[in-house]
Amino acid sequence: YQRRVHGHLMKISAKSFRPPPKVESSVVRMEPKNPPPPVNFEEWDEMIKLCFQRKHKTLHAIFFHKRSLEALYVTYQSYCKMMGKEVLSKENYKALVEDALEGKPEGSELKLTETRPARMTLDDFLYMLSRFAERGLRFR
Hints:
44% of the residues lie in helices and 13% in strands. By secondary structure, it is of the alpha+beta class. A two-stranded antiparallel sheet has the order 1-2. The longest helix has 18 residues, at 66-83. The chain is elongated and about 60 Å long.
């Protein structure tokens, strides 16, 4: 997420592995993105982990899965208590998550709620993180 592929260096034969994979392998050079995106990397990591646990599901299915929603709500409660803010009810929290996912990244035909993480760009993820942060929703 904070690196870019600088260049393809070489291909590696499948015979170099035991058992040989059914895909081609390569060595690439990666460099950190400079300057790094202006995000809280702990928040970013937690969001990315959540999204890619089920990368082929829609974001709606991921965020509204019972365990995911419960874990996010517990994180939200802790954050609010730490910051001295009022804690929303679970139903109001759920509506806030739904509102965050209603956004449509620039250049996208789909709202976040209809999008699958496997098909998202770096900018889509940054947009989603900002929508959650604007609503006081935290991943960590």
